[in-house]
Amino acid sequence: MAVRLKTPLSGDDILNLNAGDVVHLSGVIYTARDSAHSRILKLVGKGELPFDLNGAVIYHCGPVVRKTSNGYGILSAGPTTSARMNRYLDKILSLGVRGIIGKGGMNREPFKDRAVYFSFTGGAGSLAAKSVKRVVDVLWLEELGIPEAVWVLEVEDFPLLVAIDANGSSLYGR
Amino acid sequence: MIEAIVEAIRLAVTKIPEDTFSAIRKAYAEEEDETARFNLGNIIKAIDLGFADRVPVCQDTGTITFFVEAGVESPYLGGLRDLLIEATRRATGEIPLRPNAVDVLTGKNSGDNTGRNVPLIHWEPVPGDRIRIAVLPKGGGSENCSALAMLTPAEGWEGLKRFVVEHVKACGGKPCPPVILGIGVGGGADYAPLLAKKALLRKVGERNPNDKIAKIEEELLTAVNGTGIGPMGMGGRTTALDVRIEVAHRHPASFPVGLVVQCWANRRAFIEIKPDGRVDVWQ
């Protein structure tokens, strides 16, 4: 049985999950890759971050996007390699982020007692895009470009695997 | 002609070659691990969706790379470079592709997959009046796991096997396994990785014509699948779909080994420009 969760996530949502569980996630999530992480931490330091990451889920993803008459459409949106963001992980989680979605795994210690790492299948971008209902907003598009911008996405029943749980268990290196 | 090149890029990013797809279906049929089946099942769904909807299977549509076998008597040789660049630009807007060309100093994305020295174009002059082009859009996650080892001749082929298996283990789930490994041996520090990348153009299961090298390909495939890394690095039977080796003669003091890791989204397409201007596109 898959667990259904909706963002923002609470502490209880997270602490009950175990590595290997399937979660169907709905609600708003934020894409962020290398440059966006660095910018988020810089702006938080100045107290100028334009969105609230408390209970949020961050998606390591740079989508393929088509401009439409009333905004943007997401055509392909699989995860990018999360290990590149290991250097930002502890600070990002300390902002109240409860979940990271990516592929390939991350350092597991920072997740302990506060967050989980969800994995989606790398390269399966056309499938992931089917879970994206709409683009709510996009930030820093001009400066960072399509892949690195923060895309605020509303997803519905995004099927994810809990790959690292808040107890320190991990599906990697089994 | 430009439309045909755009169509080849579209084919490459939206459709996984049949040889690769059937290897993935076989892996799914043989897999018992539940997590591995979750990932392989998603891969199969994503491939079906990409081709049906004509959208990129993977959101990382890669750095567009062209390998050109340039018939020196073709009347289209002179304008080809500009054509390939313009087709890349057009493909980015029309398909669309994700813009993946970033200035190394400013970090600014060019927005259309072109820029200094990109798309990448490798030229090989060949006799005749036909031009044959391979399109290889390769993603960054797998490319980041590519490597070069300058082994000593004493380490040789045994050293190569150790290096490849250890490297695949170290990469784990990062390059989106099940992967395809391209290995280039010999030449030099520049040429071995290029041979390795060209090896990715072969079909799954298409062995090196030299029996001894073909045997090493198969040994390596078995060894890599024995690591248990599995689809997406979360355990399972299939870590690699194929291993291919291409060789050049080496300097007596050197044993260069280039390793290019390709994700399961082993995308490719081919173009042939005939002397009368007709263009064939296939995969």
From TrEMBL, chain A:
Which keywords, in A-to-Z order, does the entry hold?
A: Lyase
Listed Gene3D superfamilies:
Fe-S hydro-lyase, tartrate dehydratase beta-type, catalytic domain
- Keyword Amino-acid biosynthesis assigned to the entry: answer is no
Lyase found in the keyword field: yes
Name the EC number(s): 4.2.1.2
* Single annotated GO MF: fumarate hydratase activity
| Similarity comment | Belongs to the class-I fumarase family.
Top-level taxon of origin: Archaea
Residue limits of the Fe-S hydro-lyase tartrate dehydratase beta-type catalytic domain? 2-172
InterPro entries from the entry?
Fe-S_hydro-lyase_TtdB-typ_cat, Fe-S_hydroAse_TtdB_cat_sf
Pfam families in the record? Fumerase_C (PF05683)
Q: What is this protein called?
A: Fumarase, class I beta subunit
From TrEMBL, chain B:
Keywords for this entry?
A: 4Fe-4S, Iron, Iron-sulfur, Lyase, Metal-binding
A single GO molecular-function term is: metal ion binding
Which segments constitute the Fe-S hydro-lyase tartrate dehydratase alpha-type catalytic domain?
Answer: 3-271
Q: Does the keyword Iron-sulfur apply?
A: yes
Q: Which domain of life is it from?
A: Archaea
Q: Which NCBIfam families match?
A: PRK06246.1, ttdA_fumA_fumB
Q: Which PANTHER family match?
A: FUMARATE HYDRATASE-RELATED (PTHR30389), L(+)-TARTRATE DEHYDRATASE SUBUNIT ALPHA-RELATED (PTHR30389:SF17)
Q: Which family does it belong to?
A: Belongs to the class-I fumarase family.
What is this protein's name?
Fumarase, class I alpha subunit
